[in-house]
Design brief:
- The longest helix has 13 residues.
- The chain has 2 helices and 3 strands.
- It is an alpha+beta fold.
- It has a single domain, classed as 2-Layer Sandwich (Alpha-Beta Plaits).
- The protein has a 3-stranded antiparallel β-sheet with strand order 1-3-2.
Length: 66
């Protein structure tokens, strides 16, 4: 099962977080929540449920969630 560990406000931020987690060895999926008129919108960053805690530590360590 997949767990959302971060909700990025747009595709650019989602790609940044996805690349960070992938570089740390996580398997990552993304899912657009809704698409605005500009083709952009919130994107959920998901990892396997068993890795969610570790992924959150990486995200917090990079101060992405501030």
């Amino acid at each position: 099962m997949w767990t959302v560990v971060y909700l990025a406000p747009n595709c650019r931020e989602a790609e940044r977080v996805k690349n960070l987690l992938t570089a740390e060895g996580f398997v990552v999926q993304t899912k657009k929540i809704c698409v605005g008129n500009d083709g952009n919108g919130p994107v959920g960053i998901m990892v396997p449920e068993s890795e969610a805690g570790e992924a959150l530590e990486v995200i917090h360590g990079q101060k992405i969630m501030e």
